[in-house]
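Problem 12. The chain below contains 129 residues. Write out its predicted structure in token notation.
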Amino acid sequence: MNVEDFAYVVETEKSFDSAVVSVLKAVEKKGWALFQVYDIQERLAAKGFKHNALKIIEICSGKHADTFLNRNRLISLCMPCKINVLEENGKIKIIGMKPTMISEFFPEIAKEEAEEAEKDIIEIVDNAR
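Solution.
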């Protein structure tokens, strides 16, 4: 399995903080719900570990979540969807988890259904770029 199989990755010229704000605005514009933003660099620093900037942004589409959970409640293990903003080798990247991977683990979700959610994630990432 390659990264491209489960993640959509783009680089941005924006600063880290600006990229995070852009993701949050793109999520709101798309009509998805924001659940939580985790500052991993900050949390690990509190434990004495040093890492580059990394925020995990949890988002959800009620429409897709309802469809998927009605098919198999264990899909909740893959929820909510995540978009990460991170600094790596001096570059800022925005990375969205591809929901089509859900159909690989849960055959009751047709790939076409997961592609609908994935289209939204890719649009959010591209709009945040």
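Discussion. The CA atoms of residues 1 and 93 lie 20 Å apart. Students who got a different answer should revisit the alignment rule from Section 12.3.
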